[in-house]
Amino acid sequence: MNLAKFILGRSLQIALALFIIMTLLFVLFRVMPGDPASMIMDPKMPPEAKELIRHQFGLDKPLLLQYWYYLKNTLRGNFGRSFYYPEPVFEIVMRKLPNTILLFTTAVILSYSLGLPLGKAIAWKRGTRLEVGATTVGLFFYTIFIPWFGLIMIWVFSYKLGWFPIGGMLTPEIWSGQATSLEKLLDILYHLALPLFVLTLLFFAGSMLLMRNSMLETLREDYIVTARAKGLPEKIVRDRHAARNAMLPVVTALSLSLAFSMNGGVLTETVFSWPGLGRTLVEAVLNHDYPLAQAAFLLLSAFVLFANLVADILYAYLDPRIKY
């Protein structure tokens, strides 16, 4: 099988998986207790007005007909109008998604850029104080409860020291005034600094430990012994032979981390009051906002499935033994 056939086959699998996910999302949100119409209706409204609202949102139609419209509109890129916000779902997602990408994708890239070299180094120096100390610190941050750690950081650096804002992404006074583009950019970076530091530190621990464990497994392979027996320099054995093959599970983790970052960390965005897609998703579920919640979950699923495809393609590049 060549690469083109592999990609075509996986694309068909992704399309089938997305269809199943779309169906499950439709069913799950409609078996939830509560009526979404009650979230947007005034209890004092006359019955005629309530029925009109239900008709406008299509909630008075049979479930099978709702499902048909849902599939048809989604395939056309029309995710409908939000029940809670008075605007199309697509506009809400496109407004929130850049905020999430800015925070989480930047944190993932920074953490892996720092974690992979250190993980490779401590695996090569196994048994030394560097390896023991780095592994201990990494395990601490990898297993810590993220919301608790985020609140501690806010309490120390925002409340006690006053170095960073307590939450949010913007300072209303700056953006409502006559501030320059540079001042607005610096304001965003000022709000971004603390949550970015927290996320990078936590993601860094996971990437470092993953690279370390993968390197330790790779160093036991016969081809590493053969490379050393040939008299190759240790740096070449480590970087070109061991590290390259150790990257296989790391590539999968990185691809999935980037994909999941598109939906934002629900708890993290809530703790730091970051106006991203993850926080919006929580609000949509709590408010029974079917169209918005379905679009957010479907977007996450599409990113994850595509990330798996990219990881599989990269495998063949990293390991010549893998053929498609």
What's this, in brief?
By secondary structure, the chain is mainly α. It has 14 helices and no strands.
Describe this structure in words.
The protein is an all-alpha fold and 324 residues long. The protein has a single domain, classed as Orthogonal Bundle (MetI-like fold), CATH 1.10.3720. Helix content is 76%, strand content 0%. It has 14 helices and no strands. The protein has helices at 3-31, 36-40, 47-56, 63-75, 89-124, 129-143, 146-160, 172-176, 181-218, 222-229, 234-261, 266-271, 277-286, 290-318. The protein is globular, with a radius of gyration of 24 Å. It starts with a helix and ends in a 6-residue tail after the last helix. The relative contact order is 0.15.
List the helices and strands and how they pair.
Blueprint: H1 3-31, H2 36-40, H3 47-56, H4 63-75, H5 89-124, H6 129-143, H7 146-160, H8 172-176, H9 181-218, H10 222-229, H11 234-261, H12 266-271, H13 277-286, H14 290-318
Helix pairs in contact: 1-14, 5-9, 5-11, 5-14, 6-9, 7-9, 9-11, 10-11, 11-14, 13-14
Which key phrases capture this entry?
324 residues; 14 helices; single chain; MetI-like fold; mainly alpha
Report the CATH superfamily.
MetI-like
* Helix content bin: over 70%
- Mean pLDDT rating: 78
How many strands in all?
A: 0
Query: Approximately how much beta-strand content do the residues carry?
Result: under 5%
Regarding CATH, which class? Mainly Alpha
How many domain modules?
1
- Contiguous helical run count: 14
Give start-end ranges of low-pLDDT stretches.
Answer: none
- Name of the CATH architecture: Orthogonal Bundle
How many strands, which pairing sense, and closed or not: the largest β-sheet?
none
